[in-house]
Amino acid sequence: MAYFGQNAISISAYRDQKFKGTRSEQERLLSQSNTLYVGNLSFYTTEEQIHELFSRAGDVKRIIMGLDRNKKTPCGFCFVEYYTRADAENCMRYINGTRLDDRLIRTDWDAGFIEGRQYGRGKSGGQVRDEYRKEFDPGRQ
Amino acid sequence: MSHNRYNQNFYNRKRRHTEESGHDEENKRFRSDGGHVSLEEELETYLYRVGELNDKNRIGGYSVESNIEATANFVLDQISQKQKEIIDILLECARLPEKLTIYSTLLGLLNSKNPDFVEEAMDSLATSLRNYLNQAQFSAVHILIRFISDLINVKVLSPKSVLNIYEKMVDLTHEQSSPQVRTDFYVYCILSSIPWNGRILYEQHGPELDEILDNIKSYIENRTKDHLPLLKVWSIDDPHPQEDYLDCLWIQIKKLEENDWKESQIIRPYVSFEASFKNSTLHDFPLIIPPEYNPQTLYPLPRVVFRMFDYTDVPEEFILPGCHSIERFLVEEQLHSVVNTYYLDRKQCANRLIQLPLTNRIPLNYMIVEVIFAQLFSLPRPAHLEIFYGSLLLELCKLQPNYMPIVLAQATELLFERIENMKTVCVERFSNWFSYHLSNFQFKWSWDDWKDCANESLEAPKNKFLRETLIRCMRLSYHQRIVDFIPESINSLVPENPKPAYKYVSDEAADLEGTPVANRLLELFKERAIPEDVFSALRDIPDSDAGGGEVEINPLKIEVFTATLLFFGSKSFSHAFAALAKYHMIFKMIVDSEKSQLIVLQSLHDVWKNHRQMIVVLVDKMLKTQIVECSTIAKWVFSEQMRNDFTFFYVWEIMHSSINRMNKQVEKLRLEYQNLNEKYKKSDLASESVQDEITEEELEDKLTTLNTLKEQQKKLFFIIIENFFAVLSDYLIKVEIKIENVEQGETFKSPNWFKWVSDRFEDFLLTHNEEILPYLNEIKTQFFTSNTNKYFTNLFKMYSSFKE
């Protein structure tokens, strides 16, 4: 039934500000994408753990770990690409907002991975959000 | 905790709103266009939400009845301009099972004021019901049959017209050629609708009702149920008998009949409006005739009723309806329906479950948990993704933090206690769920309570469950984490540290023939050497002459290359994938036979024997990149090397994922061929569209490819079946001549071992029944002799009756 179950997979308000292309192009890609951005990961969470959790929603094509631009170490996000849109939707439905390494992780549609996006965009090399974070977060140090 | 949903909702209205983000978003959407709301949107919202007192936008007073009445009046005003739209929305609403009586009340009220509109609506409903029947959408058919059954109670439909439909359905049970799954479905439709209208039928059409029930009785008594053991979650009926779903429902209906068709679970808002229906026009629902039998149709598979709780398991203040009371059926049925309607939104689903309208002091949380596990353990496959059930249970724990975790812990203990009799694949699902659940609760569990099983044998069910669960926990976290949370009493169950085991750097390396080349390869890999250079370094391991100018690749070459490459890429999946991709062409050059593929798999296992997830993922990668084939993987699983791992769950994860890949490929090609064939037929008719014309040759090529692949698929199934026959017969013969564990190290051939392995065989047959059943006769000819053990003849007897 069309009326139900669309909330969990709808596109959030976040838009990649560095997207090269028009807004409508971005919207189109987001609505067809098989790729998800995964945020609020611990710096210590490994690709293996992500694979274990995310393959429970479907067949994972690849995982691209987000890295600190300078240190080349994980900095708390990744991209997960599925083979099909349906599997990616199931991930949005059942994994978004659940825990991995004791952290509530967030998944969001991504227009598709482009080389270079695996690096944090903060001044320090990590993610911008960690530069604004005031409280201590042992999983992201 | 209040047990009347409506009161509860009324008091908690404010709180729920902040929690139900799903609802709020829908409400926002409702007003999203800058405050302008179209009439259609308004109608849609009022109709979908009717009877939901927590809806901010609802109309009418603080009772369900007044809300329904207000909605009916609103709709009546719009009929003149929006008749079609209203009917369309109502047809969708009629498929919301948990609100069925609300919609029948609404229709009753509409009918009392505007019978012509309802006549139209009934015609549309009949059309839509016929469509669902023709499209084999059986759950929709089932719900709509129940809906029209309830429309007798609101004086919309004449009882006779609904009885006529029942009669047509019952008539099928006399057809000789009809498979049981088909007649089962229609009998189920009737039996599961009668609780709604049994009383009125009994009062007004007693003899007709009796005749239908007599027919069903003789049908129920004569059904074959050979398949039943295959679908049971537990191998014994103690403490809960696992009944066939129709048998159980039949007993429940008989009890309802004994009780003069009075039940106490269904909330019927229409009772308050009886006076309004007094002068209503009764309509005859158009006669619905089940479509002719079509062998292509996939009917719902038979089921077993899953029960894990009885009244002694629940707190005293609640009364769990007995397993044969109609109330137990009604609550379970509604819970199943809610899960199946809202499974796409776990938050909404959880909310709807805990708000199920109740009239009795029923332990709702226990019943919700029982229904969710019933679906999770359903054989051959659960209706939805396993992780859906896991995430739904997490939501329920969030909504009821003081109740749900306690019920779940109790359920886990019960399942663990009964694990000895639980089917292997259900133990696996249980373990997968439990590890996932714990990973959301910091792995907090009273582990020490389970310490007794640490001393059991490795094949003992509890021991195995616990070890497999810890492996899964490690896959979701990391080794040290497991070490940290596991008490000393069960330390022996902690999985090995998942490090690579690379023999060419070990103490024994100096004595190994392959070490010099292995060292050289590792250097080359580190220097990012091109594949050609790596290949020439491999030449130092000489191949042998196979005669006739043929060269046989040296197994050592394959072993050294695979092991060293995987060791080089051992840092993460990405490193391993990159290494495999970069040197893929070398695999293509040296891995040229099934024998060499087996060496690749063995080398992979040698390096990663302590990291099972890595094996699963890498075997899958090698399959996708065509380094190894499905049939080789199957042979490897049954090979000598895997003997000690044979009952580990990861091995079967590999097996099933390889088979699924094969099946998916066949299905993909089949669709491609089908599309091509349709295009071909069309282009034959309209010759002017030369552009995308399909030649006969193209079509034939596709068919040949499809048939070749189907042959491979069949070969794969036969390899697996042959090997299962071999390993299981081996055990059975030893049992027969009473040689028990005579050979040293043969401890794995125990009754427990037999259970793990035979369950895997049954699961393989059942899970892939759609693909395997067509070959049933061939399988029997090939594998059955006059000496075949009774175990196999029994199994295949059950299997053949599965879809009869």
Automatic annotation (TrEMBL), chain A:
Residue ranges, annotated region (Disordered): 120-141
Location of the RRM domain: 34-112
Protein name as catalogued: Nuclear cap-binding protein subunit 2
Segments of skewed composition (Basic and acidic residues): 128-141
InterPro entries, per the entry: NCBP2, NCBP2_RRM, Nucleotide-bd_a/b_plait_sf, RBD_domain_sf, RRM_dom
Annotated localization: Nucleus
GO biological process terms on file: mRNA cis splicing, via spliceosome; regulatory ncRNA-mediated gene silencing
Domain of life: Eukaryota
Entry's Gene Ontology molecular function annotations: RNA cap binding
A GO CC term assigned to this protein in UniProt: nuclear cap binding complex
Family to which the UniProt record says this protein belongs: Belongs to the RRM NCBP2 family.
Broad class of the protein's primary localization: nucleus
Keywords: mRNA processing, mRNA splicing, Nucleus, RNA-binding, RNA-mediated gene silencing
Pfam families: RRM_1
Automatic annotation (TrEMBL), chain B:
GO molecular function, one term: mRNA binding
Compositionally biased intervals (Basic and acidic residues): 17-34
Gene Ontology cellular component annotations, sorted alphabetically: nuclear cap binding complex; nucleus
Biased composition (Polar residues): 1-11
Entry coiled-coil feature ranges: 659-716
Predominant subcellular localization, coarse grouping: nucleus
Residue span(s) of domain MIF4G: 40-257
Compartment annotation: Nucleus
Entry's Gene Ontology BP terms: 7-methylguanosine mRNA capping; mRNA export from nucleus; nuclear-transcribed mRNA catabolic process, nonsense-mediated decay; regulatory ncRNA-mediated gene silencing; RNA splicing
Keywords: Coiled coil, mRNA capping, mRNA processing, mRNA splicing, Nucleus, RNA-mediated gene silencing
The organism's place on the tree of life at top rank: Eukaryota
Transmembrane parts of this sequence: none
Region (Disordered): 1-35
Cross-referenced InterPro entries: ARM-type_fold, CBP80, MIF4G-like_typ-1, MIF4G-like_typ-2, MIF4G-like_typ-3
Family per record: Belongs to the NCBP1 family.
Name of the featured protein: Nuclear cap-binding subunit 1-like
Originating organism: Brachionus plicatilis
Lineage: Eukaryota, Metazoa, Spiralia, Gnathifera, Rotifera
